[in-house]
C-alpha cells in the first residue's frame, strides 16, 4: 500500500475495523490526497444508500436559491404575453411557457452542445436513454439498422415498443457489410422510413465499425443516420463532422463527470430535424431536466477534455498492470496496439477514455474472479461510468451469433472497469491487494 500522510481523522473515523467499510477507510488512509478527496467522506455505502456522492449533494434546493429551481409554472404579466409564448413554445425570459418542458438553464446547455458539435440545435432530456427514445420517436423510422452489440437499454426500447423492424449488423462491421444490409432493408422499406444507427465503440466490448464506409453507404441510399456518441463525447468525436445527421449522448457520463447529472442530449445537423426533436420533447415530456443538472452540465462540460485525458492515462496504466498478470487472458480496448480495431480507433478517436474490459483466464473458476471483485476497496460495483469514482461491472455481451465477425469474443469471465480520477498508483495498489489470495 502506498504511504503518505494520514487522512483527516474526522473523515475516516466511524466504520468498524473488520467490515468492508473499515477496510476501505484503512486503505484510504494510506492513499494519496487526490484519491482520498474522491472517496471521502463516503465511507459506507449503506449510510449513503448506495450513492457515490455524499448525501446532500443531490439536493438542488440546498445548493442555490438562484435560477429557476425547476418551477413548473412560469408566470406572465398579461394574458397576451402568455398566449404568444404558448403559441411559440417559448417564454420571453428563456425556456418554454411551461417550466416542465424546458427551463432557461436547459436552453443554455442546448446552445452549448449545439456549438460543441457544430449542430443547428440541440435538445436535452432527463437521461441518455430518454434522449435516444425521444430521437427514435421523433423520426419514427419503420426500420432501424443497429449494431448487434447496441447499448442494451436502447435495444430493449426498440424491441419492447416494437416501433420498427430491427436489422442488425456486426458491431465491428465494414461499410460493405452494412451496405448489404441497407440493400436488404431497401427491398421492404422506403429510404425515408429507414434509419442507420451507429454506436462506437460498442458498449462493453468496444468494437469499432467502418464509420466512414457506413455513412457513405447510408448517404448514397438516402437514409437518415444517427450515432450514440456517449463513449467519445464531443471531445473525442463529433459525428456531425463525419456526415452523420444526428448525435445522441448520455451526458450522464463524461460531460457531467461526477455521476450527478443524469441527462442526455440530441444534436442535429439540420434545422428541420431540430424542429421535429423539439416537438417530440413537448409530446413526451422527456425535457423535464432539473435546472441543477443543467447548471452542473453547463460548467463541467468545459473540463471534460482534461478529465478524459486523465481517465485515459489511468485506464492505460491499469490495462498495462492487468496485461502483466498471469490471470488476464486479454484486455479489450481499441486503445491497445494489438486490438483489431486499433487502426479505426486512431482514425476516428485518437485517444481513449476511462473504460476497458478484462477477460480473465478461462481456466479460472468464476468464484475466484468474484472474490477478487468483492475484495476491491476503491473500485465500486456499480452501473454507469465516466465519473470520478472507479467502478467495476460484469460484461454480458448481447450478440447476434449469426452476425459475429471473424474473431469471436473471449471465453473467460469479463469485467468492465471505469478508471476514475483517483491516483492511478492507488488504484493499482487496490487491484494488487485484491488479487492476492483470490486470483494469485
Ligand atoms: C449510459 C449510456 C446510455 C444511457 O444513458 P443514461 O443516462 O444512463 O440513460 C446510452 N448509451 C450509452 C452507450 C451509454 O453508455
Automatic annotation (TrEMBL):
The keyword Lyase applies. This is PLP-dependent transferase. Keywords: Lyase, Pyridoxal phosphate, Transferase. It catalyses: L,L-cystathionine + H2O = L-homocysteine + pyruvate + NH4(+). It holds the Pfam family Cys_Met_Meta_PP. It comes from Methylobacterium currus. GO terms for molecular function: cysteine-S-conjugate beta-lyase activity; pyridoxal phosphate binding; transferase activity. Signal peptide: none annotated.
Amino acid at each position: 500500500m502506498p504511504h503518505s500522510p494520514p487522512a483527516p481523522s474526522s473523515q475516516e473515523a466511524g466504520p468498524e475495523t473488520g467490515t468492508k467499510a473499515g477496510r476501505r477507510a484503512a486503505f484510504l488512509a494510506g492513499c494519496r490526497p487526490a484519491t482520498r478527496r474522491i472517496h471521502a467522506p463516503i465511507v459506507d455505502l449503506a449510510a449513503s444508500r448506495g450513492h457515490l456522492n455524499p448525501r446532500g449533494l443531490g439536493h438542488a434546493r440546498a445548493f442555490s436559491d438562484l435560477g429557476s429551481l425547476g418551477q413548473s409554472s412560469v408566470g406572465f404579466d398579461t394574458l397576451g404575453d402568455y398566449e404568444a409564448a404558448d403559441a411559440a413554445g417559448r417564454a420571453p425570459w428563456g425556456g418554454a411557457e411551461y417550466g416542465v418542458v424546458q427551463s432557461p438553464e436547459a436552453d443554455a446547455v442546448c446552445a452549448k452542445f449545439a456549438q460543441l458539435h457544430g449542430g443547428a440545435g440541440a435538445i436535452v432530456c432527463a437521461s441518455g436513454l430518454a434522449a435516444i427514445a425521444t430521437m427514435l420517436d421523433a423520426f419514427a423510422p419503420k426500420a432501424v439498422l443497429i449494431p448487434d452489440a447496441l447499448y442494451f437499454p436502447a435495444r430493449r426500447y426498440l424491441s419492447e415498443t416494437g416501433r420498427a423492424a430491427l436489422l442488425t449488423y456486426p458491431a465491428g462491421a465494414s461499410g460493405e457489410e452494412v451496405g448489404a444490409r441497407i440493400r436488404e432493408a431497401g427491398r421492404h422499406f422506403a429510404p425515408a422510413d429507414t434509419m442507420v444507427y451507429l454506436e462506437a465503440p460498442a458498449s462493453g466490448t468496444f468494437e469499432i465499425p467502418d464509420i466512414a464506409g457506413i455513412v457513405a453507404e447510408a448517404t448514397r441510399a438516402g437514409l437518415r443516420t444517427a450515432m450514440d456518441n456517449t463513449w467519445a463525447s464531443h471531445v473525442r468525436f463529433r459525428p456531425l463532422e463525419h456526415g452523420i445527421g444526428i448525435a445522441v449522448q448520455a451526458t450522464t457520463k463524461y460531460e457531467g463527470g461526477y455521476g450527478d447529472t443524469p441527462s442526455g442530449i440530441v444534436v442535429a445537423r439540420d434545422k428541420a430535424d431540430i424542429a421535429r426533436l423539439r416537438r417530440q420533447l413537448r409530446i413526451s415530456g422527456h425535457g423535464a431536466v432539473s435546472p441543477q443538472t443543467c447548471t452542473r452540465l453547463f460548467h463541467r462540460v468545459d473540463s471534460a477534455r482534461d478529465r478524459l485525458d486523465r481517465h485515459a492515462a489511468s485506464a492505460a496504466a491499469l490495462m498495462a498492470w492487468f496485461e502483466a498478470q498471469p490471470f488476464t487472458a486479454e484486455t479489450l480496448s481499441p486503445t491497445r496496439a494489438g486490438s483489431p480495431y486499433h487502426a479505426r480507433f486512431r482514425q476516428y478517436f485518437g485517444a481513449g477514455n476511462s473504460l476497458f474490459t478484462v477477460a480473465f483466464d478461462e481456466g479460472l473458476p468464476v468464484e475466484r474472479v468474484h472474490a477478487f471483485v468483492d475484495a476491491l476497496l476503491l473500485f465500486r460495483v456499480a452501473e454507469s461510468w465516466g465519473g470520478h469514482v472507479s467502478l467495476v461491472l460484469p460484461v454480458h455481451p448481447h450478440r447476434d451469433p449469426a452476425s459475429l465477425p471473424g474473431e469471436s469474443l473471449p471465453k473467460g469471465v469479463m469485467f468492465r472497469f471505469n478508471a476514475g480520477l483517483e491516483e492511478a498508483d492507488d488504484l493499482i495498489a487496490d487491484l494488487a491487494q485484491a488479487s492476492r489470495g483470490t486470483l494469485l
